[in-house]
Amino acid sequence: MITENIFFIMNIIGLLAFAVVGALKGIKKGLDLLGIIVLGIMTALGGGITRDLLVNTIPYALRSPNDMGVALIGVWCAIVIFKVFNEDVSNKYIIQVPDAVGLSAFTTTGAMIAYNFDVSFFGIIILATLTGVGGGIISDILLQKTPSALTEDFYASCSIIGAIAFYLAILSNLSLETSAVICSIVVLMIRIVAMLCKWSLPKFYSEQK
To answer: Whole-structure pTM over 0.85, yes or no?
Structure first.
């Protein structure tokens, strides 16, 4: 029960943070109110919706009013934040830390759902990572830009590592709950260290003449 409550709180924090980040992207791009709302909602819920469609179930976000309501609150918070500070604060720790909590919670949820649908090792990694970063990728595509999860920072890699840790814990005959806790801790700790140490993956440029 305590673990479920913790994951519930982490999920709420993540939904708020993701919605704020997405809405701020829309504001920065000069979208109107509808565009800002759509971007905020898709950033918060897009990954989970895509995951559920891949496992052939009606998306949870469409069955429960809670997630949509929290995402809309996040959009409202983004508008207030922008009005107060008049700047994009999505790269500040006040947003990045809750975002890391959300990445951890969403990745873990994706891994657990993938396990319950009896997919392969790679299926667990794909669904866990998609749940964690899919919303951000969708919002970037809507803005006609290369997804930041593929070009900047050490972000999606945290989900991949966490999903691998989850799978190894399952192989070690640990319970699903314990494996989920391990996944969540791994993702959160790696993401926070990556932010503090400014980790990034190597890039390979091809110069065009």
So the answer is: yes
Residue 127 amino acid letter: L
Q: Any idea where the domains of the chain sit in the sequence?
A: 1-197
164: closest CA among 126, 202, 118?
126
Spatial separation of the C-alpha atoms in residues 39 and 137, rounded to whole Å? 11
Low-confidence ranges of the chain (pLDDT < 50): 209
Q: Please, what sign has the CA dihedral across residues 72, 24, 15, 128?
A: positive
User: What does the DSSP assignment read for 169-196?
Assistant: HHHTT--HHHHHHHHHHHHHHHHHHHHH
Task: Give the residue from 99, 87, 134 showing the smallest Cα distance to 19.
Answer: 99
In DSSP notation, 64-120 reads: -HHHHHHHHHHHHHHHHHHHHH-S--TTSHHHHHHHHHHHHHHHHHHHHHHHHTT--
Angle of helix 176-197 relative to helix 93-116, nearest 10 degrees, comes to 150
What SS3 state is found at 31? coil
pLDDT digits (tens, 9 = 90+) for 69-110: 999 999 999 999 888 887 767 778 888 888 899 999 999 999
Crossing angle, helix 33-54 and helix 93-116, to 10 degrees?
Answer: 30
DSSP 8-state code for residue 55: T
**Quick one: 178 exposed, middle or buried, by C-beta within 10 A (0-12, 13-18, 19+)?**
middle
